[in-house]
Design goal:
The chain is α+β, with helices and mostly antiparallel strands. Helices cover 41% and strands 21% of the residues. A hairpin with a 4-residue loop joins strand 7 and strand 8. The protein binds 3,4-dihydroxyphenylalanine.
């Protein structure tokens, strides 16, 4: 093969590459050029017939050709890829300002629990809380011990815990019985001050008209140097007014006991029953909606905080119960029955995103 042949072949191949105007054609050119039986590979077969001193120059020439053709192929491939992507982007453009059309989007429903979680999150986010998360499968330490609930504490029985089998070291994992372990996990990983809520699923071995083995809670935690019970009361009052969308809520703070808070309180809201409807903010009856208190010094110590320097408050509320109260759902069990008729009745439109500006639920 002469030099001119090389040049001629290279010219032909580069032209074919430049002319390929889609990826399939380009792949055909690649096979013709560099494939096992392609034109460049065929050249190499002539190598054996050459004198030893000619071989080196010939080999180098073939390799140089191969490299240039490869480079041209991959550059062309990039260009074609890009062109194809731009074409797709242009043709698949969606105008998100258009109103939804009737169809699957307007048929689907958001579960009341998801909606209420979003409402609660929106309200606390507006007060400067951020969202924290923890695992559903917890260590005994995070679910109990670190929260000042030692091994022999009766609260462990009250929680009807689902335990996993013992591990080799004798410890047992649990399905978390409340969202309070997220307090511990957050404090372990964050320096104070902090202000978080933690929404999530919790599990207890309990099932009747008002209890299901899995339900939902939102935990709240505020830690800094100056936070006191006045702040706790204000936050919960502001939350209830925003959540129930009323100007005033009657609230009653009842002394209670939780191992992880001192003092501890349960909070009731005043309501009136008119027919089947529950009206929050009116009447003389009381409904318990959450537990709260000032974080126990032992809990602070367990996460390495100094109780002489920082303090704060915590609260925990049942989301399912808050949903039932606000949206007049009398029974808890259909929440988890996946009955489409129930979902259609109580569910929310996909675009009903809660915002405070509109009043969370309107
Ligand atoms: N973890 C408690 C429960 O599930 C609820 C609770 C009470 C959470 C008081 C708190 C708190 O953070 O301060 O019953």
């Amino acid at each position: 093969m002469t030099t001119t042949n090389f040049e001629q072949l290279e010219k032909e191949l580069l032209e074919a590459i430049a002319a390929a105007d889609d990826l399939v054609t380009l792949e055909d050119v690649r096979v013709i050029a560099l494939g096992k039986k392609g034109r460049v590979s065929e050249l190499m077969k002539g190598l054996g017939a050459l004198e030893p001193e000619e071989r080196k120059a010939f080999g180098q020439a073939v390799n140089g050709l191969k490299e240039r053709v490869s480079a041209a192929l991959s550059a062309r491939k990039d260009t074609l890829h890009e062109a194809e992507l731009s074409k797709r982007l242009a043709s698949e453009q969606a105008d998100i300002t258009l109103p939804p059309r009737p169809g699957s989007l307007s048929e689907g429903r958001v579960h009341p629990v998801s909606q209420v979680m979003d409402e609660i999150t929106e309200i606390f986010a507006d007060m400067g809380f951020s969202i924290a998360e923890g695992p559903d499968i917890e260590t005994d330490y995070h679910n109990f011990t670190a929260l000042n609930i030692p091994e022999e504490h009766p609260a462990r029985q009250e929680h009807d815990t689902f335990y996993f089998n013992e591990r080799e070291d004798g410890s047992r994992l649990v399905l978390r019985t409340h969202t309070s372990p997220v307090q511990i996990r957050t404090m372990e990983n964050t320096e104070p001050p902090l202000r978080i809520i933690a929404p999530g699923r919790v599990y207890r071995c309990d099932s009747d008209q008002t209890h299901t083995p899995m339900f939902h809670q939102v935990e709240g935690l505020v830690i800094d140097e100056v936070t006191h019970m006045g702040h706790l009361k204000w936050v919960l009052d502001a939350f209830c007014r925003a959540y129930f969308e009323v100007d005033e809520v009657k609230m009653r703070f009842r002394a209670s006991h939780f191992p992880f808070t001192e003092p501890s309180m349960e909070v009731d809201v005043g309501y009136a029953k008119v027919g089947d409807e529950i009206r929050i903010g009116e009447g003389d009856d009381w409904l318990e909606i959450l537990g709260c208190g000032m974080v126990h010094p032992n809990v602070l110590r367990n996460v390495g905080y100094d109780p002489a320097k920082v303090q704060g408050f915590a609260f925990g509320m049942g989301v399912d119960r808050l949903a039932m109260l606000k949206y007049g759902m009398p029974d808890l069990r259909p929440f988890f029955a996946a009955d489409l008729r129930w979902l259609k009745h109580y569910g929310f439109g996909v675009l009903d995103v809660p915002t405070l500006a509109r009043g969370v639920s309107s």
